[in-house]
């Protein structure tokens, strides 16, 4: 995957997260609170990928991508929690969960390659 594709993909993911959090904001209680957490973590993935693109060193790049991966894991948690608590049905969040898993896998692969010094990740 080209780096630009990942930037576009994480941006589109963030747009979907923003729209979901807007729906959650209309709810009361836990749904609204989870929505705020989801908004922070889900939009942070792409922001850190973008920052990593301008990394000053391999270590800086790996650090930003590692933060993006951490935020993706947190986002996956919040999405699963929305399903488990029946705030949203699985079928409504299935594609977001799937995309989040794919982003996690991609980020993990890129981080591993960069740590080994293969810069064509």
Question: Would you give an account of this structure?
Answer:
With 121 residues, the protein is mainly alpha-helical. It has one domain: Up-down Bundle (de novo design (two linked rop proteins)), CATH 1.20.1440.60. The chain is 83% helix and 0% strand. Helix 1 (3-25) runs antiparallel to helix 2 (30-53), helix 1 (3-25) runs antiparallel to helix 4 and helix 2 (30-53) packs antiparallel against helix 3 (58-84). The protein is elongated. The mean pLDDT is 93.
SSE diagram, text form:
Layout: H1 3-25, H2 30-53, H3 58-84, H4 90-115
Give me some keywords for this one.
83% helix, mainly alpha, 121 residues
- Summed up, the helix count is 4
Oligomer classification: single chain
Give the name of the CATH superfamily.
23S rRNA-intervening sequence
Count up the domains: 1
Main sheet properties: none
What's the alpha carbon Rg, rounded to whole Å?
Answer: 15 Å
């Amino acid at each position: 995957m080209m780096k630009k594709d990942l930037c576009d993909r994480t941006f589109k993911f963030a747009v979907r997260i923003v729209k979901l959090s807007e729906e959650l904001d209309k709810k009361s209680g836990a749904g609204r609170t989870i929505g705020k957490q989801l908004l922070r973590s889900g939009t942070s993935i792409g922001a850190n990928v973008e920052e990593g693109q301008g990394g000053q060193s391999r270590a800086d790049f790996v650090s930003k991508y590692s933060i993006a991966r951490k935020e993706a894991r947190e986002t996956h948690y919040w999405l699963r929690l929305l399903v488990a608590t029946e705030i949203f049905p699985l079928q409504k969040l299935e594609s977001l969960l799937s995309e989040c898993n794919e982003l996690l896998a991609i980020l993990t692969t890129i981080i591993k390659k960069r740590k080994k010094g293969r810069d064509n990740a």
